[in-house]
Amino acid sequence: MDIKKLYNGVEIPAVGFGTWQLTEGVHEVIEHALQAGYTHIDTAAVYKNEQEIGEAIKKNGIDRSSLFITSKVWNNDRGYDNTLRAFETSLSRLQMDYLDLYLIHWPANPTRENAQQENADTWRALEELYQAGKVKAIGLSNFLKHHIEAVLDNATIKPMVNQLEIHPGYLQTETVDYCKKQEIVVEAWSPIGSGRLLQNESLLAIASSYGVSVATLCLQFLLQEGLVVLPKSTNPKNIRYNLHFERFTIRNDDMEAIKALPTTGFSGLNPDEINF
Ligand code: A2P
Q1: In whole angstroms, what is the distance from residue 94 CA to residue 84 CA?
Q2: Catalytic residue check, 170
Q3: What's the pTM value of the predicted model, to 2 decimals?
Q4: pLDDT for residue 1 is more than 90
């Protein structure tokens, strides 16, 4: 399995199982993912599936130490004390005594008074959790370059990860390049554009020239760019395939063609504009 190393030495499986919008049949889907061999599962308090993910893991009996579990503090729990409380709630829902990775789910909207302070206080709580050994790595999610720079102004510990919406047609190059320079590992949520890219004609043409599906092309492209991918599926065949597809090399000209695609498949969730 592909493994990446965070700058603090923690190893993270490069293909994780995304669980955004997984609210039905959670036990069964997680059991399929574990049986397929996923050891990295990405959840969040707001996904409302932590409890069932924890139960499914327990029922499966897999050794906790072989798993890499991520969760995220939701927007209405920002701030130092709230974040510490939210973390404990996530832990107890997951029935675990530590997390592998804990992220700030979204930066505070810059139009909010004190947005910068809210992010700084939330980050301080994550630093505290890390130093207390309750989480093996800490990071950000949906933070653009300017949000990360502001966090770094007050941080003692640099984030190890930033999770962003990234897929062909929405590459967020400025933030990704900045993260790479900072040794912050980038994770791609919605790596297949939440399914919106599956019928894209440009991608279909490139995928067929390698004899693969668009889903596989998207995942290979992002892995080749050095990212961690978090594909989501409820279909047992796709779940297995997304982890085990035979790795190949996309030629440079095709990499460039994919990079040159116009904006497509974007969720519309701009971190500077969201108001939830
Ligand atoms: P399904 O649950 O039927 O597999 P993303 O990971 O970008 O959020 O995309 C998730 C969407 O992509 C889901 O609709 C999922 O549908 C679909 N999907 C995931 N993996 C594959 C795959 N290997 N082939 C086709 N569709 C896939």
Answers
A1: 16
A2: no
A3: 0.97
A4: no
